[in-house]
Structure formats: C-alpha cells, structure tokens
Amino acid sequence: xxxxxxxxxxxxxxxxxxxxxxxxxxxxxxxxxxxxxxxxxxxxxxxxxxxxxxxxxxxxxxxxxxxxxxxxxxxxxxxxxxxxxxxxxxxxxxxxxxxxxxxxxxxxxx
Length: 110
Prior knowledge:
Distance between the termini: 14 Å
Largest sheet: 5 strands, mixed
Strand content: 15-25%
Strand order of the largest sheet: 2-5-4-1-3
Number of domains: 1
Mean pLDDT: 92
CATH topology: Rossmann fold
C-alpha cells in the first residue's frame, strides 16, 4: 500500500507490459481502515503540508517521503486528489490546503 498526493499510478513496465488498474473513490472512514490494515504502508507524499493534513485526516502518521514508486500487480495506492488544478509551481501551505476540496481514491493494480 502506497500513499500518494496525486492520481498518478506509476507501474513498473520493466516487469510487465500491461496492467489493469481499478480506481474507486473511498470515504475518509474507509481510508482510515485501509491505512490501519496496511501497517507497513509506504508514504510517497513529497510535501510537508500534505503529509501533515493527511496525518490528521487518516489518524496515522504520514511522513514526508519524496520517492519514486513503481507499482506491480497486487499493489494498492491511496491517492489524495485535489479537485482543482493549481497554478504551475504553486506549493500550498497547510492552511491553503485545508480550504480546498479533495477526493480519496483507492487504486488496485491487477
């Protein structure tokens, strides 16, 4: 299980040339349960403000961890997706981020 701050599903095409991805919106309570069930989840959240907000939303510590991920069959991702596009290069503060609408999306690589 990975935690992302975008809806990108980065698959490892060195291991397979075709993947099927299931995406579905989840509510906060389901997201909390998923994160609790996957105690060894890996954060791929690159911004401190997003990690801080997700820590509050999900009730578990989400660390800032700017890494490249390559998902494979069986991997899941929990995606924090803003409902609006930001101006190029804009990095939000925690206060700015709290004012925006978002979705939580679960991805499953098949």
